[in-house]
């Protein structure tokens, strides 16, 4: 039920037994400098390390009161010794300065944010018994399948209400309509900045997002990490960095971190070195590198065109970056070779088999200082192939679509070449026949058929092929003369990338090249 997306791409835990691990209410009463857990469910939950993390991340900006009265929903991630994720979902209420939080092995923000909102209503107007009842019901519910609807009857004081929420399909690309993270990212970041962020992710830079809205901050970090799909960020990943862990941004390794603006403004974070900083409040992006310039031009032009025209609430943003990854890494199977007993992958062979326009960029991603996400992706694909397991995800589907498009373009190109050869042959024959006509009896170019005054019939024809053109043909723009030693194959530049390999316009460029020959 987890699907390829969940088990491989976002590193979900595989030992999940309940919908959530623990529910906590955290208050500002301090103990050892951290907020205090006021209540928890189940009471016997005893993972002290996880509980300490809940205390740290529930109040990332410290215990001081905030000026904002808006409730904030945000998320964080805990990574275990197996590099698997546990997701924390929080609801912070400034009015009473408390935060309720659940830890879960499922990355379902829409589900758990709705659960937290409902629990908050019960806590405000219901009894402790009502709260215990709903937590018990959710905790002991069987793990639902994709597309199932969770439905509970909840007692809220004297009222009985129904709570229901649909389980998302994590095997599909996130959409603006259904994915809160991607919608926040789309609203906060310009398309130009999206492209720059994507380029920095590909190079595994040290990347910081900063802003005052915790919900926007954590959402943008999650959404940015999905731009690498089917690969996933392998280094430090912190959607919201607590003030107590602010020294993490001084680490030399790659990271993707959301730093609240209140923490970012501290003097200790003034000298960060070569860090990409995306300021969600000021709408700016700072970087010491021009990573977009290093990307293959065909990928950059494709993304610019697609992102400019992405206005629907579907998965168009996610799919645009997925197709960009197909353009870059879709030929990964070219690096595989068959050994004595198993399949293995060679990075040098993979790069060598790619188009010349891709090779310099791909070469920069491999080797001793290569990127971890690509290395891990190849390891996973190799393991699947050697295990005989099928690999079926959105990435493979798009690779198949691109292969079909390439075949279609190749067939169209063959038709073009055949047409051009026929035209060249006809023009060459015409030129030879033209030489057979004595110069003194050739007709002028403005010659038209007219009756002879003596015979009443038509004058004799010469072999000059100008006679077979009507007036409209002679007055229209002539086609280029191919008899001047122009190689036929050079009339189409097959090395120039098609502007949009996923629309009909890519094939249309070949048609427009020879349109004057088709008439």
Structural class assignment: alpha+beta
Under CATH, the homologous superfamily of the domain at 180-308 reads: DENN domain, C-terminal lobe
Tell me the number of strands. Answer: 14
Average residue-wise pLDDT: 80
What's the CATH architecture of the domain at 180-308?
3-Layer(aba) Sandwich
Helicity level, as a percent range?
25-40%
Low-confidence stretches: 1-9, 447-519
Shape: globular
**Biggest sheet strand line-up:** 2-1-5-4-3
CATH class of the domain at 180-308: Alpha Beta
Task: Give structural notes.
The protein has 18 helices and 14 strands. With 519 residues, the protein is of the alpha+beta class. Among the domains are: 22-145, Beta-Lactamase, CATH 3.30.450.200; 180-308, 3-Layer(aba) Sandwich (Rossmann fold), CATH 3.40.50; 315-387, no CATH class. The strands form four sheets. It has a five-stranded antiparallel β-sheet, with helices on both faces. A hairpin with a 5-residue loop joins strand 3 and strand 4 (85-93). The chain is globular. The two termini are 57 Å apart. The model is unreliable at 1-9 and 447-519 (pLDDT under 50). Residues 21-388 form the UDENN domain. One of its GO terms (molecular function) is guanyl-nucleotide exchange factor activity. This is UDENN domain-containing protein. It comes from Angiostrongylus costaricensis. One of its GO terms (cellular component) is cytosol.
């Amino acid at each position: 039920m987890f699907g390829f997306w969940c088990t491989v791409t976002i590193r979900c835990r595989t030992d999940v037994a309940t919908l959530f691990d623990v529910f906590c209410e955290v208050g500002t009463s301090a103990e050892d400098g951290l907020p205090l857990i006021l209540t928890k469910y189940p009471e016997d939950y005893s993972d002290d390390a996880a509980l300490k993390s809940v205390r740290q991340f529930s109040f990332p900006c410290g215990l001081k009161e905030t000026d904002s009265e808006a409730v904030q929903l945000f998320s964080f991630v805990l990574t275990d010794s197996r590099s698997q994720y546990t997701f924390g979902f929080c609801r912070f209420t400034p009015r009473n300065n408390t935060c309720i939080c659940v830890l879960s092995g499922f990355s379902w923000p829409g589900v758990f944010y709705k659960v937290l909102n409902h629990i908050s209503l019960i806590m405000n107007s219901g009894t402790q018994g009502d709260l215990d009842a709903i937590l018990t019901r959710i905790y002991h519910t069987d793990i639902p399948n994709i597309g199932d609807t969770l439905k509970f009857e909840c007692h809220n004081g004297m009222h009985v209400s129904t709570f229901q929420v649909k389980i998302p399909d994590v095997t599909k690309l996130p959409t603006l309509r259904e994915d809160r993270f991607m919608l926040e990212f789309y609203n906060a970041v310009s398309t130009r900045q999206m492209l720059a962020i994507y380029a920095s992710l590909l190079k595994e830079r040290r990347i910081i997002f900063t802003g005052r809205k915790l919900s926007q901050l954590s959402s943008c970090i999650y959404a940015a990490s999905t731009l690498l799909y089917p690969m996933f960020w392998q280094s430090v990943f912190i959607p919201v960095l607590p003030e107590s862990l602010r020294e993490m941004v001084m680490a030399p390794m790659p990271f993707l971190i959301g730093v609240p603006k209140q923490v970012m403004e501290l003097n200790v974070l003034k000298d960060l070195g070569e860090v990409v900083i995306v300021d969600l409040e000021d709408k700016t992006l700072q970087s010491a590198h021009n990573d977009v310039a290093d990307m293959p031009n065909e990928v950059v032009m494709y993304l610019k065109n697609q992102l400019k025209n992405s206005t629907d609430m579907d998965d168009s943003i996610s799919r645009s970056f997925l197709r960009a990854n197909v353009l870059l890494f879709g030929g990964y199977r070219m690096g595989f070779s068959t050994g004595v007993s198993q399949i293995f992958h060679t990075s040098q062979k993979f790069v060598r088999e790619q188009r010349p326009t891709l090779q310099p960029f791909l070469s920069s991603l491999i080797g001793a200082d290569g990127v971890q996400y690509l290395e891990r992706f190849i390891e996973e694909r190799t393991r699947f192939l050697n295990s005989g397991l099928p690999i079926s995800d959105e990435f493979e589907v798009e690779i198949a679509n691109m292969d079909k498009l390439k075949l279609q373009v190749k067939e169209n190109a063959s038709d073009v070449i055949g047409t051009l050869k026929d035209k060249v042959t006809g023009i060459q024959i015409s030129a030879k026949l033209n030489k057979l006509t004595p110069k003194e009896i050739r007709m002028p170019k403005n010659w038209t058929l007219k009756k002879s005054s003596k015979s009443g019939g038509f004058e004799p024809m010469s072999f000059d092929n100008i006679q077979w053109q009507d007036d409209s043909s002679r007055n229209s723009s002539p086609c280029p003369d191919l008899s001047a030693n122009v190689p036929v194959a050079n009339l189409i530049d097959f090395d120039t990338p098609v502007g949009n390999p996923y629309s009909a316009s890519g094939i249309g460029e070949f048609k427009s090249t020879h349109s004057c020959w088709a008439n």
